[in-house]
User: Fold PrsW family intramembrane metalloprotease from Actinomyces oris.
Amino acid sequence: MCQRITFVLMVAALAVVPRLLAALVPAAAMLGCLMVMALLGRTRTVSWRAMSLMFSVGVPWAVVVALLTRVVAGWAGVKVSDDGAGIALAAFIEEAGKLAPLVVAAMVAPGRVRRFAAVDWVLLGFALGAGFTVAEDGARRLIPPGPLAQAIGEKLLSYSLNPWTSGEFTMSSGGWTTQILDHTDASGPMIPGHQVWTMTLAAAIALGIALWRTRRVAARLVAWAPVPAVLTLAVSDHAAYNASARSWASAAWAGQGHDGFPEWMLDLWQALGQGRSAVPISACLLVLCLLVDARRRLRAGELGITGPEVPRPPCAGGSGRPIPGARSSRGSDGAGSLLLQ
Assistant:
């Protein structure tokens, strides 16, 4: 009965709300990409329910991060729409804030998070970033196109079942006339979907944890490096692309920059191919996480390490019935652990 009501409401919404069908394209594509990632993450321990939950959380969380960005920019005396420092500030807050739900999960269910495989971080990070892509592009598609876009056609983001290229956007290397008239020119700066850098940052967290667990002094010193390094790459990639997109002349901006925009971000962005290094970096870190998990499982088999069983409640008089009021030991994570199973 509930499924029939839901189906009827969905059909009614598609008939009443203009462009709703186009706005649902990112959600369907990102859900398919999440399934592909679940198949690639052969060493994962998190369930599909946990991944889909993070995907669902990522959509409203994108709105929260957008509002928080405006508040912080107001405190700093800049606008997120300004060229220069405002763009850099917005990129930093957004890239760092995307993974906040994972931090909350670590506080709510620390025991379960400690048992995460390295690839679990990647999958949950991908799910959060996919939610951001759905929220951002879905809202953009709901807005009716202007007269110019109606005349020459909208330039929407392309989607596929490739988790790394779905939702990416590439600019032309020419000026604004080339960007409008030549939709086939994709030789300029590009930006992947939010899910790429988010899962890359989550992979950096997983690798840092793996290095720390080796208990070697040198490894623990290096363990702090992956997260700030990847965060720096993500922020510079995001900020430089936004600045180039707003300039409407990406080739000229890449050589001149904007007043107030950090020059080191521009140099780093150019050195890494104007956004084209995000996908190979992300893929390499995913492979490293899979190798870390494989080695961990291999060592567990060699050492005979198994997970502890959950003790049963004490029984009364050997009858097999638990004593009233007795509680079994399920760890200290409670409901938060159940959500991440």
Summary: Residues 148-153, 248-252, 307-311, 327-332 have pLDDT under 50 and may be disordered. The two ends are 29 Å apart (CA to CA). The CA atoms of residues 171 and 188 lie 5 Å apart. The first helix runs from residue 2 to 16.
